[in-house]
């Protein structure tokens, strides 16, 4: 049995392919965690493994990376099966596989779980994904139907086996393992090792190497953790409200991509904050200069990626804001560790979309602390804070200038005598001018009828969930100063796609405001969307791997002829006749009978 005495300083030392090493570094991992350092070499050799480690220690990468290195992308059939106790974890693990395999052309991973369309899963299985991630019940359904082929499987992973035991799945797991023929590699991971888990291990992991990583208590006791659930208000506007009302000295804001660090820094600077980006593209000299500026109070806010912020230790950082939720719990602990050091109290704020609630719960389990939900500061609270800061600054300046004020007192006296203006009016005018770009009185939000407010709230909720069937979206105002390019995405109506899914995915994953997302046209097997010309390559690469309705978008410039018919209001265009399978009606559903139908006027 091995434990955490194994210390590896870099993923380069583990024998992984260069493409996978590059992926994990791009995500933000620099040093393997103990479970990763111990597990990866064993699984790379094709050996079975019994691993004991707590949630949040990086277990997913410890089995996903070595198993990906043994995948044959030319073979379109299941080669790895991962069993998880919940649908949320299944989705999370599938997304992790997709991120690590971003440079593996032809790779596909499919999450399967109860509550999701069986018809859609059958269609996706026919596409030949190499990795299946699923809950025991749904995996058993497919095995009994004969729709999940185990003959080509090389490995099976049992993730969080003790949770599956608690939920009563252990007998199902035992049965599933019996369906996967020998020889196959088995990796079992569990936070605890009760007797029932040991029995399964003895039956199916004969001769497996055991690895045990002692649990650590996360050092976040001095950090006040809160989260805001993204809903309705633009993330940038929400961030500004929070920064205005939080009493912070210095802050570090975490985002996922290098491009986002620059964009967010520019937006904050435009709103009057002293902010700068910190990312892996910066050379060492520029990085050190930025950190020194933060230490010397020439900067107040740094927007960083996980990679760039590793090892960052600046005493005056009081706040860590997770603008983008991290990919795993270990990264979260590293992030918030930038504050609350040496016994000082720090604050950590996490932005969470509804679909990221599963990661929020995983973070709470890993840190063994409840993260409190926070309300977004109101416009009145922002205005009150601005007034307070203005008063304080006037008092401080008045105490500092001293005798130099005599000339200005005489100047003000002349103004009152020559123009019959009161001292109060002069002071008020000067105060207004000073705060012209940062008004102390915020204009009220326009009132909407109750019904309109409710519809707007419901629509925002649906957008955060990625859209719902039957959703009708309002027409978006197209910017007149932007050139649009038509892109094709390999997801269509047959996958259950709705326009809201496309807008939600692009807005959330690429940070593109909805007004910059042009016409969306849906067909059976694909769709098109118009985006601004000159899209950065890293954003497009990220969108290629982004999944909508559990299918990768695989976005690319649409080089086909432009559609002849334009969208009519909110309605999607009619599909070409050859895009609708025989026997379907206009909604994509089977017709009640096969009798010939009368041609429409646009088909004659």
From TrEMBL:
One Pfam entry for this protein is DbpA
The Helicase ATP-binding domain is annotated at 40-211
Task: Write out the annotated subcellular location.
Answer: Cytoplasm
Gene source species: Oceanospirillum linum
* Encoding gene (name): deaD
Question: What catalytic activity is recorded?
Answer: ATP + H2O = ADP + phosphate + H(+)
Residue ranges of region Disordered? 441-477, 553-604
Q: In this entry, which stretches build a coiled coil? A: none
Residue stretches of biased makeup (Basic and acidic residues): 441-471, 561-604
Write out the function statement from the record.
Answer: DEAD-box RNA helicase involved in various cellular processes at low temperature, including ribosome biogenesis, mRNA degradation and translation initiation.
Name under which the protein is recorded:
ATP-dependent RNA helicase DeaD
- Major place of localization? cytoplasm
Cite the source lineage. Answer: Bacteria, Pseudomonadati, Pseudomonadota, Gammaproteobacteria, Oceanospirillales
